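Input/output pair, single chain:
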Amino acid sequence: MKALGKGSIASIVEIGLTIAWYVLWAAAICLAVGAVGYAVVLVLIQNGTVDPAILSGGEGHVRLGGGDGSSFHLTYNDPGGATWPVVVPALLIGGVAITGSLIIVWRLRKLFDSFTSGEPFRRENAQHLRAIWMTMLAIEVARYLLLALTAALLAAFEPDIDANFTFNLDLSTWGSILILIVLAEVFREGARLREEQELTI
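Output:
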């Protein structure tokens, strides 16, 4: 099977990227719904409808309806683990990961569209690769910052939670970023040579 053009490996990868695009949008919607749901729970805790223990753990209750909770009354025991110093950084990490992935997949779709059409050395392909490595770099830096924020919030507000965070250097990610930097320059130079050749002809 040929690598470029219609019916090639590039066209198969393009289909996979399209599927990933829609899956990522579904994940983004789920994350947004989760964030809104969590905000609603916080509001209900503030007005006394829901016991704060639902987030921190222990026994509690949810009352809806009349002042005595006659319409709906639910008791629970130790759901826990969902206080804001845990959930807010988790939502931020998820948001950064999904947003970055959407940017990367969108750029890859554009890149493989040109591969499928048999024109790999378009000038915009170098821009797509540059945007991809810059996005990967931003995601990686944001990951370190958000892990540090989570550790600081847990130390300040949840000292009882035993959280062990390790700031591992992901060599495969940093290696991929370096490779993409080089490939972006290769494609930029290839596009320049192609334009010069077209002008000569």
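The chain has a mean pLDDT of 79. The two ends are 32 Å apart (CA to CA).
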